[in-house]
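Objective 1b. Sequence-to-structure analysis of Zinc-dependent peptidase.
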Amino acid sequence: MNVKLRKQEFPSVGEVVYQAVLTNGMKLVVIPKHEYQEVYGIITTRFGSVDTMFTDYQGEVYNYPAGIAHFLEHKLFEDSQGKDILQKFSIMGAESNAFTGYTRTSYLFSTTNQNQVKSCLDLLLEIVENLSVTEESIARESEITGQEIDMYKDQPDDRLFYQTLANLYPHTPLAQDIAGSRDSIKLIGIEELKENFNHFYQPANMVLVLVGKIDPEEIFKYLNKKEHFKVDKGVNLVHHKKIALYPVVRTDSMRMEIANPKLAIGLRGKDLVEANEMLRYKTILKILFTMMFGWTSQRFQRLYESGKIDHSLTLEVEVEEAFHFVILTMDVEEPVSLSHALRSAIRNFASDPDVTEEHLDIVKSEMFGDFLHSLNSLDFIATEYNPYLERENLFDIPLILQNIRLKDVLEVGQSFIDNCDMIDFTIFPK
């Protein structure tokens, strides 16, 4: 086991990353930023909303209700006395939060008090070390989460995105809200929470990332000395299931209390992306769709000037080992005709007048500038740094951008678009 810090330099962005595996098996990543007074700590477990069905390495199959990862995230913020751990961070002058995604759950703190960094770090680790739940606390959380689910159902933009995603991946965990449904969370009890906690909240399945004014060697020695996670949970790590590809819902709509129609175009990739190519692949997809639909494109300017779209147009690109998709959302005047036009443009991307060498350089420069600006935010670095990418790194993005040529964009575009399933979803005013 690697018990020493390994230093990796990224001269293109002036960043240095230190990595090691602690004696308990947890991966540690430290990114010093001594010009800042703040420290961000984020611990991530490879357990997200899609992990409702999995197999351990002894072959036993497990199946759980939708929303259990999100539910467990909320319960871990309660200590053994049922008190909110957020208040403990507040007492130390720190901020704390947590979030659940499709494939990961993360817990974080930030503080400007150098004297409290280690105390905050210990408290962060205590969150993911111990689970204290009762039937009463589960019932209370079920009602709170149910209200959260209802609230998001009333948000048109959320409904637009998540229903499009559900229609891309019907009959899979991606068709469910990350928080689950009122029906699914009623099925979550003490045993379900404990089993998932024991499977996924193990040191070998987690990564701790620290960014800011921090000494890598000092914190490395401190964490090894503290010996968190002394209790062996006695379970095997799991084999994550691939997302099944059932027939998509090609066109769908609903009505809500809105002023103007909302349109989404969704594309589902079929071929799995190699783990060591995910960041590059995602970057190229972002470039391609930005070239075609971003504000620098002729298409966007033409549609905007004619009043057919506005600045609400957004692009979401997700690339994971088990799935990848692209979703465009926008407020529109004529959703039916515009959907047809946009889907036709996507299919014919290779001959699109916006997909040129000159436009590629413009988009790359814009993305490079946005990325460099983002590096001024410790929050961005802490939350966007993906420690599960073995051969790619957040700080590789400038070199990735630099080396992308038009032929790369066309090759990835052909691989993705020619084999994808494409759908549309519209919300009409009532």
